[in-house]
From TrEMBL:
Pfam families: Gln-synt_C (PF00120), Gln-synt_N (PF03951). It comes from the Bacteria. Gene3D superfamilies: Glutamine synthetase, N-terminal domain (3.10.20.70), Glutamine synthetase/guanido kinase, catalytic domain (3.30.590.10). It comes from Paludibacter jiangxiensis. This is glutamine synthetase. Homooctamer and homotetramer.
Length: 340
């Protein structure tokens, strides 16, 4: 039997890339294995990745997942390559120079579900605002939770596809939600976040709703939380050292590379990182135990476990590229450890 192979990639739009996808029919008796997915070409001139005179780019399969939204189908996550096989400039996955299972990542993906007609989050009236923030975070009931049927369907699809989604919850603003994905290795973490975003967009299509990943879609002036993608991370040393000096050294090193990190943490993040709504200022750096107003939070669990565990960088925006975020986190963490 033939299978539908949905090739998914990231386009070249700036400042934020979008997902693109097209379907190939496999040959008979498709194995479901990545090595049996061939390299495919596409028209880069239609995705802001090439000119019309030299438009062919390549899609290199890097991960494959069953697609529960279709019959006999798979989602194939791909990297974009130039015609000569080198990574395209839009290929964030290729920026990961060091990737192994020693680094663990847990991304907390926040997002808004938006009404197509009003262009406002679900739960917002057409010409105004709902009750102030307070009842929506982990809220239950029709007055507090909006779009739960979409969130639950997305959760089920991700789990059936084999994505390591560890949980979901309603977030602080009305119509705002979150899911968490854990993975070992930067590339696997990035693959899973992007495929989960693909499934979310596809599920929302059914309901005539769109997904908003802008970190501050309601504007920075209003008293509504923005959306982030908090990055929890650790390596073998952090998980076993039992030494506060290791965590301090890593955090101090992060403070020396503010712009390097912020530059890949998502567009319009300055509207979110204001020092309000559980954020630190984009222009400053801070870290502290159990402090959600800091740039990096040291979880209380890390301290209680004898300084063994993880750190949480709270600065990445909801629209950030997890490949680029993981790459810079690995780089800075290694620099900090090297100075011990």
């Amino acid at each position: 039997m033939k299978a539908k192979l949905e090739y998914v990639w990231l386009d070249g739009y700036k400042p934020t890339q979008s997902l693109r996808a097209k379907t190939m029919m496999s040959k008979d008796n498709f194995s479901g294995k990545l090595e049996d997915c061939k390299v495919w070409s596409f028209d880069g001139s239609s995705t802001e990745q090439a000119t019309g005179g030299s438009s062919d780019l390549l899609l290199k399969p890097v991960a494959i997942y069953p697609d529960p939204t279709r019959k006999n189908a798979y989602v194939v996550m791909t990297e974009v390559l130039n015609a000569d096989g080198t990574p395209h400039e839009s290929n964030g996955r290729a920026t990961i120079e060091s990737d192994d299972d020693d680094f663990w990542f847990g991304f907390e993906q926040e997002y808004f579900l938006m009404d197509m007609e009003t262009k406002m989050p679900l739960g917002f009236p057409a010409n105004g605002y709902p009750a102030p923030q307070g009842p929506y975070y982990c809220g239950v009931g029709a007055k507090a939770a909006y779009g739960r049927e979409i969130v639950e369907e997305h959760f089920d699809v991700c789990l059936e596809a084999g994505l390591n989604v560890e949980g979901i919850n309603a977030e602080v603003a009305a119509g705002q939600w979150e899911y968490q994905i854990f993975a070992k290795g930067a590339k696997d973490a990035g693959d899973q976040i992007w495929v989960a975003r693909y499934f979310l967009e596809k599920v929302a299509e059914k309901y005539g709703v769109y997904v908003e990943l802008h970190p501050k879609p309601l504007g920075k002036e209003l008293d509504w939380n923005g959306s982030g993608m908090h990055a929890n991370f650790s390596n073998g040393l952090m998980r076993t050292c039992g030494d506060k000096k290791v965590f301090d050294a890593i955090c101090e090193e992060f403070g020396k590379h503010i712009q390097e990190h912020v530059s890949v943490y998502g567009a319009y993040n300055d509207q979110r990182l204001t020092g309000k709504h559980e954020t630190a200022s984009i222009n400053e750096f801070s870290y502290g135990v159990s402090d959600r107003g800091s740039s990096i939070r040291i979880p209380i669990g890390t301290v209680e476990d004898g300084w063994k565990g993880r750190l949480e960088d709270r600065r990445p925006a909801s629209n950030g590229d997890p490949y680029k975020i993981a790459a810079v986190i690995i780089s800075t963490t290694k620099k900090g450890i090297a100075k011990l």
